[in-house]
């Protein structure tokens, strides 16, 4: 049993190293993922920020949680693309002829998504600090924020795995991320939901991004989190479990 575990983790390390080399050799992937969210942050803070009433004097503090979620949603489209490319090139079939744990092929892409998105999030936070973002939160709230972002990335990565394994074209593999990127715009990420029409507000208040944004915003501002953090965790864990189940089913059928 111990040998099997060691074999699994060593194989997963090899697959992770392979995927990460693709990232490091093509840094334009991370650059592309960070440019759009940073552009949104610059646009909303310096162009629209003065006209948006959020009840805070520092709009970048209000805006940052939503920008981080947009960055993650943009980043996971590349996970779907890399998975689709491996399937189309027969990479999985080649590895399956070798004595390695089959699930490590998929986990290598998942872990790569977590690491690459963490890099993008770190870059965006640094830019936000330059723009005036400040947080009174201590180490524990920051760790809680990191945990929520980790779970959100993991959830969307398994959704990306479904798209990457089942898509018929490159465009189909990455197109699924567009609605996810759009979700923060119909949430409390940019403006309070109280300013929205009733129907739009009902959707915004009951979709996952609003709960996640509110939980992160409260943690970073040092305010009581309330029930938002439990709603955020429930959304992230629920999406992860459902997406993982279907991703593994598609993986077994496809390869």
TrEMBL record:
Main location: membrane
Residue ranges of domain ABC transmembrane type-2 in the record: 28-254
Domain of life: Bacteria
Spans traversing the lipid bilayer: 30-50, 62-84, 105-133, 139-163, 175-193, 229-247
Keywords attached to this entry: Cell membrane, Membrane, Transmembrane, Transmembrane helix, Transport
Annotated membrane topology: Multi-pass membrane protein
InterPro entries attached to this UniProt entry: ABC2_TM, ABC2_TM_bact-type, ABC_2_transport, Nod_factor_ABC_transporter
GO molecular function, one term: ABC-type transporter activity
Cross-referenced PROSITE patterns: ABC_TM2
Entry's Gene Ontology cellular component terms: ATP-binding cassette (ABC) transporter complex
Compartment(s) where it occurs, according to its Swiss-Prot or TrEMBL record: Cell membrane; Membrane
Similarity section: Belongs to the ABC-2 integral membrane protein family.
PANTHER family: NODULATION PROTEIN J
Name of the molecule in the record: Transport permease protein
Species assigned in the record: Paenibacillus stellifer
């Amino acid at each position: 049993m111990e040998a099997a575990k060691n074999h699994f983790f060593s194989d997963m390390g090899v697959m992770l190293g392979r995927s990460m080399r693709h990232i490091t050799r093509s840094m334009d992937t991370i650059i592309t993922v960070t440019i759009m969210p940073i552009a949104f942050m610059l646009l909303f803070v310096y162009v629209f920020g003065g006209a948006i009433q959020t009840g805070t004097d520092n709009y970048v503090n209000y805006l940052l949680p939503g920008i981080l979620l947009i960055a993650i949603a943009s980043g996971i489209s590349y996970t779907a693309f890399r998975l689709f490319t491996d399937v189309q090139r027969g990479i999985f079939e080649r590895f399956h002829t070798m004595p390695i744990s089959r699930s490590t092929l998929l986990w290598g892409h998942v872990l790569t998504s977590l690491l690459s998105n963490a890099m993008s999030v770190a870059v965006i936070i640094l830019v936000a600090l330059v723009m005036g973002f400040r947080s009174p939160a201590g180490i524990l709230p920051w760790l809680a924020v990191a945990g929520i972002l980790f779970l959100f990335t993991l959830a969307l990565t398994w959704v990306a795995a479904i798209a990457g394994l089942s898509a018929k074209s490159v465009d189909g593999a990455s197109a699924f991320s567009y609605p996810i990127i759009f979700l923060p715009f119909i949430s409390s990420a940019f403006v309070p939901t109280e300013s929205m029409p009733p129907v739009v507000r009902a959707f915004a208040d009951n979709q996952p991004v609003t709960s996640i944004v509110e939980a992160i915003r409260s943690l970073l501002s040092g305010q009581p989190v309330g029930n938002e953090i439990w709603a955020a965790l429930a959304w992230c864990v629920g999406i992860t479990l459902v997406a993982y189940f279907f991703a593994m089913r598609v993986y077994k059928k496809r390869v």
